[in-house]
Amino acid sequence: MQCEAIVFKAQNTVGHARFTLAECGPEEVVVKTAYTMVSAGTELRVLGGHYGAEGQYPLVPGYCVIGQIVHAGPEAKGWKVGDWISGRNPKALPAIHARWGGQASAHVFSASSFEDRPVLLPAGANPLDYCVTEIAAISRRGVVAARPQAGDTAVVIGQGMIGALSAAWLCAAGCRVGVIDLEPSRLERALRLGVAAAFDASDPEVARRVGTFCNGGADIVVEASGVIPAVELAYKLVRKKPQAYGPQYKREPIQFYHGDWPRLVMQANYIAPISMNPFGFVEGEAVTIISPRDRGVEDRQAAVEAIRRRQLEPTHFIDLVAPYADAAAAYESLRCRRRFSVIFDWSEAV
Fold first, then answer.
1. Distance CA 137, CA 104 (A)
2. What residue ranges define each of the domains in the chain, with the CATH number in brackets?
C-alpha cells in the first residue's frame, strides 16, 4: 500500500513524498489518515535540528493521528475495520527516518502495544473534533499530577497548545487561572476561553503583577513555554508555605505541611540545561516538582471522553485546517506565530 507523507528534507526545509507502507503484522492494524495535528513545539524543534533530528534528515515528523481502520490483522483482537481511532507513534515507514512518523496518509499501528496502541473514538464521532486528543492528553497528565482542587490558584506560563490546554484543564477543575505569554493574541484567546487573568511576559513587573493576582504566590504553576527565563520566573511564582509574611512570621513544624506543598509542573522540554540553587529557587521551604513525560493510554482515553462530553471544547484549539500539500507554508505560519495551531487534512491523498 502506498502513502503520502510530509517530509523534513533538511533543516528548515519541508516537502512531501510518496512511500510504500510497512507490512501489516498479525497483531497490527492499517489506518487511513483523516487528519493529523502538528505538535508545534516538538515538530518545529525537530525541523530546526533538535530532538535527535540532526543527521537524520530526511525524516517524517509528528505523532498526532486521527484515522479509520481499513485492515486488521488476524490477531488484532477487539479491533474492527471501520473503527475510528486516535493514534500515536506508528510503525516506521521502511525507506525513511521518523521523528515520530505521524504526518502521513496511512499508518500501521500495533493493536497490542502497551504504550502505542490506538485509542478508540466514540461511535458516530466527528473525527475533526478529536484531533487535539494526543496533545490534550499530555497537558492533562501534568495537571492531574498536580492534584488541582476547586479554589486553587494556578498560573500557566506559555500559551501555545500545551499551555492553553493546561489552562483549560485547570479551569475545568475549578481553579482560578492566570496565564502569561508574550503574544497579545494568545493572551486575548485565553481570556475569551475563560481564564481569570492574562499577563504580558515582557512586563518587567510581571512577577509582582502575578503576585497581586494570587496573593504572593500560586498553588500550582505550570511552565509550558520551554525557555529558560520562564523557568526562572516559574520558581518565583510558587507560593510560600505557610502563606505568611512580615516580622511576626513563625515557622510551624514542617510535618504539618506534608502533602500540601505548592506544585510546579515542568510541562515543556528544554534544549539548554537548567541550573538552580536548591536553597534559593523557592521562597518557602519546599515545592513539589512534577515533570510528566509523554502520556499513557489512560490519559489518551480520558482526553477522548472529555471531548465527547464537551468538558473540553476542541474547536477552541483549532486555528487552521490545511491540505497536507500546503505543509511548508503551514509550518512557516507556526514558526512565525501567525497561527496558533495547524491540522492537516489528508482527504486528497491517494
1. 21
2. 2-131+318-345 (3.90.180.10), 135-290 (3.40.50.720)
